[in-house]
Each structure stands twice: as C-alpha cells, then as structure tokens.
Amino acid sequence: xxxxxxxxxxxxxxxxxxxxxxxxxxxxxxxxxxxxxxxxxxxxxxxxxxxxxxxxxxxxxxxxxxxxxxxxxxxxxxxxxxxxxxxxxxxxxxxxxxxxxxxxxxxxxxxxxxxxxxxxxxxxxxxxxxxxxxxxxxxxxxxxxxxxxxxxxxxxxxxxxxxxxxxxxxxxxxxxxxxxxxxxxxxxxxxxxxxxxxxxxxxxxxxxxxxxxxxxxxxxxxxxxxxxxxxxxxxxxxxxxxxxxxxxxxxxxxxxxxxxxxxxxxxxxxxxxxxxxxxxxxxxxxxxxxxxxxxxxxxxxxxxxxxxxxxxxxxxxxxxx
Length: 321
Prior knowledge:
single chain, about 325 residues, D-Maltodextrin-Binding Protein, domain 2, 2 domains, ten-stranded mixed beta sheet, 11 helices, 10 strands, about 40% helix, globular, signal, Tripartite-type tricarboxylate transporter receptor subunit TctC, receptor, BUG, Bug_dom1
C-alpha cells in the first residue's frame, strides 16, 4: 500500500478508535451536585451530606448538596431530569419518587424514561406507634381492639407512602380505620401522643425520641428483621402478617442517557462509602442499613417496587389527582 494510503488508513482507524471510547471516560471532570428535593435537615438531607463529604476525596472533585424542595420531591427531581446526562447531577429521593406517577395525573417529567437509577443507598423500616396508655402492646392486640369498636379508631400518616402502608395494615387485618393526613411527622406524633389519632405510621427516626421517653408505644416495624434501633419491637411478619415488608429507601437517580460508565463509577464509590464502619454507624442512627446494589440490579428492583405500590394503591382505591 502506498505511503499516503497507509497514512490515511491509520488516520481513519485512530478516528474510529476515538469514537469508540466512552464519552465520559474521565468522569468526573467537574463538581458533582446531589440534589435533595426536600427541605434541609431531614433524613434524606443528612444522608446526602454524609455521602457528599466522603465522595469528594474519592472523585477528586467537589461534591455539593443542593436542596430544591417542593411538590413531594417533583420540583427537584424535574431539575435533575432536565440536566445534562453526564453524571455530574444526580438526585437523592425516597419512595415518594415512585408514588408520584401513581398519584399525579400530570408531571413535568417521566419517572421511567427521563431518569435512570444509580443505586439504593440505604433502606429503613417504618414503625407503627400508639399512645403509651393504649391497652395493646403489639399489632395483633391492637387490631383486636379496633375490631371491637370499628368506628372509634384512626391511623395517621404524614405523606402518601405512610398512608399506603397504613392502608396495607388495614387490609391485612380486615380493619376499617379512617386515615388522617398530616403535613409532617412532628404534628402526627403530637396527635398520637394526645390520643387524637390512634396509631401513627412513621419513620423510626421520627418516633424513637417519643418511644424512648415513654410517650409512645411501638407496635411493630415493617422490615423483614427487627431493627437494632428498636430491638424489642417485633416485625409485622413476626406478628403473623406474611409478606408485610416495607422500607423507606434513599435512592440515587441520574438523567436518562447518562453514560453507564459514570453510573457504575458512582455506584462503586457509594457502595464502598456506605459499607465502611463509620457510615454504617451514621445510617444506624436513622435505623437504616446500607444497600448500594449494582446499577442493573437496582433498576430491575425499581420496576418491581413500582408494581408493588401501583397494586397497593389500586387495592385501597387511592386515585390520582
């Protein structure tokens, strides 16, 4: 082959090789932003800030937390869905993320085509609590009291996830408790302590101070196993409610079309962080345990979780607004 043609062929092969390289092989090449679509100071915000502190030296780029609260997480999540799909902007959400497309007829983004999962950082069970003077010490005894006077009792929730979990308990125990909706865990706990609402469904983090002080009595937690944060409290499964396993999750998502290499790099770093003893201890304070499964596994589980919530919403006749 004449020299000019050899040079041309070499140039073409180098160009093709360059095209074959990952678009973001050097990820990250600028600061990374973790958007928290809820107010500062909550459980999600705490997890995000602990992650950011530990990701910064690992990624060799600043990792910052940006709170964009509003509309059950929709405002902040929409911001991420419309961000550049390069791995530098992600969102940390709880289960409400999967409930929003069930409960809202119109949303500014598509939960499943505009976003892709990175990993579930951690998960935490919920707890059912009642007034400490209530004459029941577990979820089964509580159900017996409700059945004896079916028009007297109610369950409180602070958002749609806990509302659905309370409805799930109603269904398992063949009860007809009325739901009372609250705008936060704090006013819910106040009314349960005062006997205004009979039972509250909330996070262990929210309820534990009142349990420790003796103002509330825990009836059951919703995890598959007991939580170290409340070791004496049985699970719903232990109480005879088969398959009653529900968690609050803290999960990372990125814009759709984010390169797989960037997703996998983030997942690997998050995994190593949350499995370290110091981070396990921080999560344990929120009754949370680390997960950080691989990208493909997480996205498969997201579909299963969405089907679960969709089925439950249908069973309890929760309509989209």
